[in-house]
Predict the structure.
Amino acid sequence: MDHNASPLNPLPPVVWIIALPMIAIEAVLNLGARGVIGGPDAIGWRIAALEQFAFFPDLLRDMIATERYPVADLLRLISYPMVQGNLTSAVFVVVIFLALGKMVGEVFRWWAILAVFFGSAAFAALVYTAIPVLKTVLIGGYPAVYGMIGAFTFLMWVRLVAQGANQYRAFSMIGFLLFAQFIFGAVFGGGTEWVADIA
């Protein structure tokens, strides 16, 4: 037994570069909401963060209609995964991302991890915007995490093909998570954010 071994599995630096801001933002927002830091004004920090970083599909529709694309508003395509709606969502997003980041990061290069995470978030927001009836703002890292699940599924697919096994088993994780999200939404109520997750 190695007594000098790290208690945590080492993660690629790019995974920490993505995860640490999510952790820090949630810690500040949660401590502010509980009155531990920031005084009375801190109670509204989450709402202010949502207003600053959330993705508003109608905003992008207006940009397309007017053919004006302010950089600050375009950044919302990749900023919305960094702020979660609540502590529970933040814990789930970060834990799943760290686990997948470990597995995917051992194979993918650092820039590919960035491309998968932020590219998935941007693509999901674009698909969400393309459906005119969807008006709810997007917030939270689930679409980006589903992109990481897609990268993990790709790795599983390649491995199963190399082993001559049934490659469709690679989709079991996505199927399970989508089913669990459907059940959770049916029991506790859910919005239209699942469209971005599927995208």
In short: The mean pLDDT is 86. Residues 153 and 172 are 9 Å apart (CA to CA). The radius of gyration is 18 Å.
